[in-house]
Design the sequence.
């Protein structure tokens, strides 16, 4: 392991961690970790889920539940692991602040965001209620939130994902911390918003002089943001050094594997048969949502919010159409219309047939068509019922679409499908009777893919299928999807904001913004020579520094 010196070797480290070990009961999850953070430095702690990154950060503030801690964490002469609880409360949210991964769960849903920031100001800076309210607006403004005075009175659910994360950052900065712990602060955000949040953190770090410990598995963000990087594997720090040095010449095999885990393109190219019936096609597609009208008019009529306007596409057999755009661009609405879950105007066909109108939503025609198009969701943990076994989850579709099968026949199909996605009973004894929580994120996503493929559909809608996964697991899932496409001539509608995933998987791409298709064409045309300024910004935001 290589140890890098702090940015300014003349000054002592702001934080000096030595031989930190974290144990839960008899299981040690962090093993003798040591690193320094200099004043004003940006250190990235990287590794896959379960590597111990977040537990290490939480241990510094003794927030890791009932964990048993050993070692030391000296911050300006005080050992955070030995401080009395009363003194440590002054450090939490004071000298050290934290920004969490998912602001929707970290923010209080019952309080306006301005009040939540003001609460910290009153507690940590002893400001009056009026002073803290004004200072909260100024802090929100410093993070780039538009109309900060109005947004201060908004509840978290009324803000976009990027605005909620900015509010979290404003709350963390309210105490003027010396060290900011940022735990996956951009994972749930679009690629352009990720860049904006990182740029914001860099600007604020330069203005305030605080140090930042960035916890992430996104190596692109590390290269763009950090001064130094420390790599964790299974609770051990296996390598650390300057970002340019580690990325240019990684010494540890695990680091090399992380850096080499970029999505690889392995799809069938070639000419498409134009006369063949496509898996899906649409022309002049329009999807609207009813919205209440203000005032007296709202008693008698509804307005319309146009979520998708004039969209058109064609997905041939064994081909992938990538749909890219930021949150609110209409990507998910387009997918729901394709799945027959939303009424749509214009031309829309799946496997040569159109969905019947909502009045016949559960008709035999629609039920047969649903067998041809299935979906794999972003988060496999929330999309799989925790109360159902693997056999029940994967075989559920067969009960609806193939009720003539006996229990043994259905079980045989489920086992064969699980083996095809890389889950075999030999590897997981009692596989069929297990529950989702007994599997890792990548294994749960394989379960979700098996559930979708058990009905032998023509088309899979992949809604951000890898954004919740680590880079190495992401590569494994993409390789699986590429193999299944070749073997079964599957068509994919791939919804994502990850340009690298689109490059690896898609044949054609459409770029959406505000419900409209701004640009479309082959993956090389759109991503290598984008014409629209919006597409150019998306591609630039995803480019490695």
Sequence:
């Amino acid at each position: 392991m290589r140890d890098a010196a702090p940015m300014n070797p003349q000054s002592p480290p702001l934080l000096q961690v030595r031989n930190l070990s974290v144990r839960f009961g008899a299981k040690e999850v962090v093993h003798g970790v040591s690193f320094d953070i200099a004043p004003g430095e940006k250190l990235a702690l990287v590794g896959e889920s379960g590597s111990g990154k977040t537990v290490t950060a939480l241990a510094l503030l003794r927030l890791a539940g009932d964990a048993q801690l050993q070692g030391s964490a000296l911050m300006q002469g005080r050992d955070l692991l030995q401080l009395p609880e009363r003194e440590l409360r002054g450090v939490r949210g004071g000298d050290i602040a934290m920004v969490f991964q998912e602001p929707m769960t970290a923010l209080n849903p019952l309080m306006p965001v301005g009040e939540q920031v003001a609460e910290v100001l009153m507690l940590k800076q002893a400001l009056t209620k009026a002073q803290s309210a004004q200072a909260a607006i100024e802090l929100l403004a410093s993070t780039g939130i538009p109309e900060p005075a109005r947004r201060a009175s908004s509840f978290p659910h009324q803000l976009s994902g990027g605005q909620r994360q900015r509010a979290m950052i404003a709350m963390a900065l309210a105490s003027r911390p010396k060290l900011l712990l940022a735990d996956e602060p951009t994972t749930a955000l679009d690629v352009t918003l990720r860049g904006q949040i990182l740029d914001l953190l860099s600007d604020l770090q330069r203005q305030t002089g605080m140090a930042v410990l960035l916890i992430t598995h996104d190596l692109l963000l590390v290269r763009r943001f950090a001064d130094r990087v420390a790599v964790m594997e299974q609770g051990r720090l296996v390598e650390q050094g300057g970002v340019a040095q580690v990325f240019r010449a990684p010494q540890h095999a695990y680091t090399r594997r992380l850096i080499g885990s970029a999505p690889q393109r392995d799809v069938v190219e070639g000419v498409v048969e134009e006369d063949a019936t496509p898996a899906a096609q649409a022309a002049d597609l329009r999807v609207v949502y009813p919205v209440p009208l203000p005032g007296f008019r709202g008693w008698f009529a509804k307005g319309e919010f146009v979520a998708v306007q004039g969209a058109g596409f064609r997905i041939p057999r064994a081909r992938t159409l990538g749909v890219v755009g930021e949150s609110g661009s209409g990507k998910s609405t387009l997918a729901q219309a394709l799945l027959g879950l939303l009424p749509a105007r214009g031309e829309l066909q799946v496997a040569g047939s159109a969905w019947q109108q909502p009045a016949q939503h559960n008709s035999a025609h629609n039920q047969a068509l649903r067998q041809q198009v299935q979906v794999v969701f972003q988060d496999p943990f929330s999309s799989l019922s925790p109360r159902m076994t693997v056999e029940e989850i994967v075989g559920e579709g067969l009960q609806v679409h193939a009720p003539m099968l006996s229990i043994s026949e259905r079980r045989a199909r489920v086992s064969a499908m699980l083996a095809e996605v890389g889950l075999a009973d030999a590897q997981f004894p009692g596989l069929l009777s297990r529950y989702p929580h007994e599997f890792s994120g990548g294994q749960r996503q394989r379960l979700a893919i098996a559930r979708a493929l058990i009905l032998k559909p023509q088309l899979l809608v992949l809604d951000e299928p890898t954004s919740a996964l680590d880079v190495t697991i992401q590569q494994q899932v993409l390789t699986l999807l590429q193999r299944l496409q070749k073997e079964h001539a599957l068509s994919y509608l791939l919804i994502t904001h990850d340009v690298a995933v689109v490059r690896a998987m898609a044949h054609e791409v459409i770029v959406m913004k505000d419900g409209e298709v701004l640009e479309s064409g082959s993956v090389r045309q759109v991503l290598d020579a984008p014409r629209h300024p919006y597409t150019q910004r998306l591609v630039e935001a995803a480019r490695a520094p």
Q: What stands out?
A: The CA atoms of residues 433 and 466 lie 26 Å apart. The chain has three domains: 15-50+66-224+236-259, 282-359+458-545, 380-456. The two ends are 25 Å apart (CA to CA).
